[in-house]
Amino acid sequence: MEETIGNVAGEIWTLLSNRKNPVNVTELPKLVKSTPQLTYQGLGWLAREGKVVYTEKSGKTAVSLSPAEVCCC
Fold it and tell me: What is the pLDDT of residues 11-64, one digit of tens each?
């Protein structure tokens, strides 16, 4: 199960790295083509590692990569 969650976390990271704007948390399962449960576990994995930041606007929660994760290459 850990490997599956880690794979989903990788998919979330890749998705966020290709986006300029934060992504609504409720849209993530559809965007990474995974179940909500696995998606939120993967998101928690990334949050625990400090790889994502959350923002709230108009009562909706969005997520993006933390500044340390954004590549400057």
Answer: 999 999 999 899 999 999 999 999 999 999 999 999 999 999 999 988 999 999
Other C-beta atoms closer than 10 Å to the C-beta of 61 total 12
Tokens of 32: 């990474």
CATH 3.40.50.720 fits 2-69, yes or no: no
User: Residue 21 burial (CB < 10 Å; 0-12/13-18/19+)?
Assistant: exposed
Kindly give the residue spans of alpha helices, DSSP state H, lying in 1-73: 2-17, 28-32, 36-48
pTM assigned to the model: 0.89
Pick left, alpha or beta for residue 57 (phi over 0 → left; psi -120 to 50 → alpha; otherwise beta): beta
